Amino acid sequence: MRLLINVATSVDNSCRIMETVSVDTVSAHAGMSVWATAGVHPHSASAGVDGLEFLLEHPKVIAVGEAGLDYHYDHSPRKTQRSVFAAQIEMANRHELPLVVHSRSAWDDVFGIFDYEGIPERTVMHCFTGGVDELRECIKRSALVSFSGIITFANADKVRDAVEVCPLEKLLVETDSPYLTPVPHRGQPNRPALVTLVGEETAKIKSITVDEVENATWKTALKFYGVEDFYTTSG
Predict the structure, then answer these.
(1) What gap in Å lies between CA 189 and CA 24, rounded to an integer?
(2) Which of 53, 119, 164, 187 is the one with CA 20 to 30 A from 198?
(3) CA-CA distance, 1 to 69, in Å (whole number)?
(4) Rounded to the nearest 10 degrees, what angle do helices 132-140 and 107-117 cross at?
(5) By C-alpha distance, which of 13, 64, 65, 68 is closest to 43?
(6) pLDDT value at 233 more than 50
(7) Res 21: pLDDT
(8) pLDDT band at 34 (very low <50, low <70, confident <90, very high)
(9) Starting at the edge strand that comes first in sequence, how are the strands of the sheet with 61-70 ordered?
(10) Are the C-beta atoms of residues 210 and 199 closer than 8 Å to each other?
């Protein structure tokens, strides 16, 4: 059995996701065991976090997020983004839940808020877009770093450099579907099955085998989300 984690982007979206994590989801999703996060993406920060904490009590909610800052699009005012991000860090710490973080063009403020609020013990930097310097700041704060199809792009040398120096035990792989489709499928909608291409590129960059990447990231993901008891390390 494999697992699927449905990642939330707003309180309303988090509520809808609760429908996907009912007790019968294993049979309903072709053998997948479905879990969820509950959180507010920076794009949705203007809508606030009212009602979010109640959802964190649901037994199938295994993380807070996707939370963070996005100064590239600025769909929500930056002050509001920072306030909503800080509130979710506080919730993650109080509920002892992992935190899934979005950071785009906002590294200094992300790290500053981490240091002020206290970064949760289990934190992952989702869809990492930084370079070696940003990676080292994440590792210094004991965060995991998750790489997407970006690492297959021709213009992504700085992100590949980060993959190369990232300790394997601190590394995860993802797709960020339906965005950032890896080469050679650029121009098509992304999908979770293409995570294999991210794993293959990671292995190539780090000069290790694909099996090593698969086994390490699977084990790390289970531990990060606190679901080891539900799965074997072989998946």
Answers:
(1) 28
(2) 119
(3) 34
(4) 10
(5) 68
(6) no
(7) 83
(8) confident
(9) 2-6, 32-38, 61-70, 99-104, 123-125, 144-147, 171-173
(10) yes
User: How many CB atoms lie under 10 A from the CB of residue 230?
Assistant: 12
Share of the chain above pLDDT 90, in %: 87
Do the strands 99-104 and 123-125 form a parallel or antiparallel pair, or are they unpaired? parallel
Q: What are the DSSP calls for 78-118, one per residue?
A: HHHHHHHHHHHHHHHHHHT--EEEEEES-HHHHHHHHHHH-
3-state DSSP assignment of residue 56: coil
Q: Is 70:31 a contact under the CB 8 Å cutoff?
A: no
Least confident of 20-24, 218-222, 223-227: 20-24
* 3-class DSSP assignment, residue 146: strand
Cβ–Cβ under 8 Å, residues 103 and 69: yes
- CA separation for the pair 209, 212 (Å, rounded): 5
CA distances from 19 to 30, 36, 96, 220 (A): 16, 10, 23, 27
DSSP 8-state symbol, 234: T
What are the CA-CA distances from residue 83 to residues 37, 104, 182 (Å)?
19, 16, 33
CA distance 88 to 82: 10
What is d(CA 30, CA 10) in angstroms, rounded to the nearest whole number? 27
User: Residue 112: how many CA atoms within 13 Å on its side-chain side?
Assistant: 7
In terms of pLDDT, which residue wins out, 5 or 90?
Answer: 90
Q: From residue 170, give the alpha-carbon distance in Å to each of 71, 113, 197.
A: 26, 21, 19
Q: Residue 235 — pLDDT band, cuts 50, 70, 90?
A: very low
Please identify which residue in the block is written with the tokens 């996701």.
17
